[in-house]
Inverse folding.
């Protein structure tokens, strides 16, 4: 973990202006970065440590905690980015983590307070100040507050709270240097522990003494904010935003493939592959592993299944463009602040699935990759909700890789087959949620959530976020795809797949109407779905069979990375239950689809 | 007795009573408590959430909770809804 930018040139972010830290240097003093959700803690973290922490314009981005180093001339601190909390009497998992970290204590508490919502933010601040931990307060977003007509007297607030208060605008870097300079002045607040009511009374007095609010007229932004949660318009906007997003993602993804990546692969990589293939004589062990099987005498990047052909083509050409397009769109909606509004629009639907509207956030993240989606279920309040949300994501929410392959494998036959897969997945999502809601004991908690103001996303922020997410994909997916291709080749050579296919053929033939060879790809989907869909291509399935196979594949075992996260988040027993539900749903959905096809004679 | 759920869109009201327990803590954490003035922005159809404006910030409250937050409507500007 070292500084990000050229520290000599950068004058506004003192953290990263300091020389990169030596990871071996002893560094035990902790600074706790504490604050309400969505007040910019992660931006502070990035500014102070030079380590990028993901930030978004909605509460609950940081669900675990991130740690980085802040090197000052005379000492070194471990900076802990505590998950956003409204209170230290936890109401959800993130707040429990926050409480635990604060209980463990630290040298300094850097409390970030949102100047646009001073009163509410002071609750957590006072709770922390009552705890006898030396503190400094960053009064963040003072620019936005001023814009809204909210003026806070910083000197008066400092007097009232008894600890240093520094006005800041973290996104632009304003005030960060002063924060660092005043860390040494940190001192415990002068407050005795109190209960909620007493604390609110105290806060009321403080706010009255330090804050002045001027009335501002309704701005365009206010109007848009009201319209987004309007009973009629809000719903229409929500549907439009989703529809437009998916359309745009597909256009951009396809455009990148057709105009950029495919031509690059064809003109630069393929000639090289062809000469390697010729040099190896077109056959043999090395040829089999590196290039794969020749299809009609030529290399087919989708079907040859060599490490250098399919192993690179699938992740880099077929999947990466959709990942880029998806995350660009998601990051934009995130930073704009639209996602919580989508939660309001979807709340009544999700309530019927045992969730509440906020579950739309992990679900949408899952549309990119199930791993961050399942991690984000931590923002949900109850274990029951988290189980339902995580199970629904791993069963019925196709990640971007899988979707790229769904379109890739069925698109040639016409979009109606692609639509059929999506329709089946959405129906399964609704029906399964409904069943889980009915069957599982407990109730679904209510949505109580703060809606952030709309903010115009910064290009730099979006770019960084996109880059980190795409990098995660590259680092995580490419080794797995290569490993998957290698494993497929090995299993074929060892004759494992034909044996499995024979064993499972009654199930596949009888229930799903698929040839026994489809068993191999569906089982290997455990490793990575995109590789598995690729393996279905050479089997010569009818479009109907392909739909059944793709649906079954999409719904069975999540890929190995998702499986690991699911195990970590839910624990062994619940993961087992989740997997059982998954298998049953997948076979049922595949079986029903097959039945429908044979009944309608399609 | 009006609640946030029955309050008309666009009207301002003062919170007079809130549910107890866990629910209350979550509302309080967002700054909602007795005596606070809120403006109802909207209520979504099909028992969807109610959105209110509190100190310039929108807060969405699930239908089941919104029904249990009691409010006293002041005289509205036009005198159209005559308080309680």
């Amino acid at each position: 973990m070292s500084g990000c930018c050229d520290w000599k040139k950068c004058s506004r972010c003192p953290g990263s202006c300091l020389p990169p830290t030596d990871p071996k240097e002893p560094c035990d003093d902790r600074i706790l970065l504490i604050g309400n959700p969505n007040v910019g803690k992660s931006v502070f973290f990035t500014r102070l440590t030079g380590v990028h922490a993901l930030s978004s314009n909605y509460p609950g981005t940081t669900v675990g905690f991130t740690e980085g180093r802040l090197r000052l001339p005379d000492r070194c601190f471990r900076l802990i980015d505590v998950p956003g909390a409204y209170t230290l009497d936890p109401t959800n998992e993130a707040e429990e983590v926050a409480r635990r970290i604060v209980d463990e204590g630290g040298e300094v508490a850097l409390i970030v307070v949102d100047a646009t919502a001073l009163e509410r933010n002071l609750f957590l601040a006072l709770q922390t100040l009552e705890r006898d931990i030396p503190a400094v307060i960053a009064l963040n977003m003072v620019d936005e507050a001023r814009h809204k007509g909210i003026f806070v007297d910083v000197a008066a607030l400092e007097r009232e709270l008894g600890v240093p208060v520094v006005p800041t605008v973290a996104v632009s870097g304003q005030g960060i240097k002063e924060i660092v300079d005043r860390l040494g002045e940190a001192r415990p607040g002068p407050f005795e522990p109190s209960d909620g009511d007493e604390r609110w009374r105290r806060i009321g007095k403080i706010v009255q003494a330090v804050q002045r609010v001027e009335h501002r007229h309704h701005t365009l932004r206010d109007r848009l904010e009201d319209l987004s949660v309007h009973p009629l318009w809000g719903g229409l906007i929500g549907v439009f935003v989703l529809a437009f997003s998916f359309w745009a993602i597909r256009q951009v993804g396809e455009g990148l493939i057709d105009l950029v990546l495919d031509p690059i692969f064809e003109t630069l990589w393929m000639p090289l592959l062809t000469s390697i293939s010729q040099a190896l004589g077109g056959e043999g062990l090395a040829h089999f592993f590196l290039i794969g099987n020749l299809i009609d005498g030529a290399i087919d990047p989708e079907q040859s299944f060599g490490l250098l052909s399919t192993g690179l083509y699938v992740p880099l050409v077929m999947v990466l463009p959709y990942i880029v397009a998806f995350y660009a769109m998601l990051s934009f909606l995130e930073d704009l602040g639209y996602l919580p509004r989508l939660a309001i629009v979807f709340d009544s639907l999700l309530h019927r699935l045992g969730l509440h509207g906020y579950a739309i956030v992990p679900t949408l993240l899952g549309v990119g990759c199930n791993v961050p989606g399942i991690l984000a279920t931590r923002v949900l309040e109850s274990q029951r909700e988290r189980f339902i949300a995580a199970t629904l994501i791993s069963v019925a929410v196709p990640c971007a890789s899988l979707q790229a392959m769904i379109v890739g494998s069925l698109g040639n036959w016409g979009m109606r087959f692609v639509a059929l897969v999506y329709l089946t997945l959405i129906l399964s999502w609704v029906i399964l949620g409904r069943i889980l809601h009915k069957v599982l004991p407990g109730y679904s908690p209510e949505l109580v959530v703060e809606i952030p103001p709309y903010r115009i996303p910064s290009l730099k922020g979006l770019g960084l976020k996109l880059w980190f997410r795409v990098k995660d994909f590259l680092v995580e997916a490419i080794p797995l795809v290569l490993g998957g291709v290698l494993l497929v080749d090995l299993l074929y050579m060892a004759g494992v797949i034909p044996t499995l296919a024979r064993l499972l053929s009654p199930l596949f033939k009888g229930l799903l109407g698929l040839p026994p060879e489809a068993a191999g790809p569906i089982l290997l989907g455990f490793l990575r779905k995109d590789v598995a869909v690729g393996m279905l291509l050479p089997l010569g399935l009818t479009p109907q069979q392909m739909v059944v196979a793709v649906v079954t594949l999409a719904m069975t075992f999540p890929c190995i990375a998702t499986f690991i996260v699911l195990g970590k988040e839910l624990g062994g027993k619940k993961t087992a239950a989740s997997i059982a539900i998954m298998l049953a749903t997948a076979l049922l959905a595949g079986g029903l689809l097959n039945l429908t096809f044979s009944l309608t004679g399609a | 007795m009006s609640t946030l759920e029955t309050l008309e869109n666009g009207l301002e009201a003062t919170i007079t009573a809130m549910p107890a327990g866990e629910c209350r803590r979550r509302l309080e954490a967002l700054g909602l408590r007795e005596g606070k003035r809120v403006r109802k922005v909207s209520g979504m159809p099909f028992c969807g959430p109610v959105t209110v404006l509190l100190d310039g910030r929108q807060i969405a409250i699930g239908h089941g909770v919104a029904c249990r937050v009691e409010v006293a409507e002041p005289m509205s500007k036009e005198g159209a809804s005559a308080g309680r």
Remarks:
- Chain A is about 60% helix and 5% strand.
- The radius of gyration of chain A is 27 Å.
- Residues 487 and 493 of chain A are 10 Å apart (CA to CA).
- The interface with chain B takes residues 86-87, 89, 91, 116-117, 119-120, 123, 148, 150, 196, 200, 225-226, 229-231, 234-235, 340, 343-345, 347-349, 351, 356-357, 445-451, 453 of chain A (CB under 8 Å).
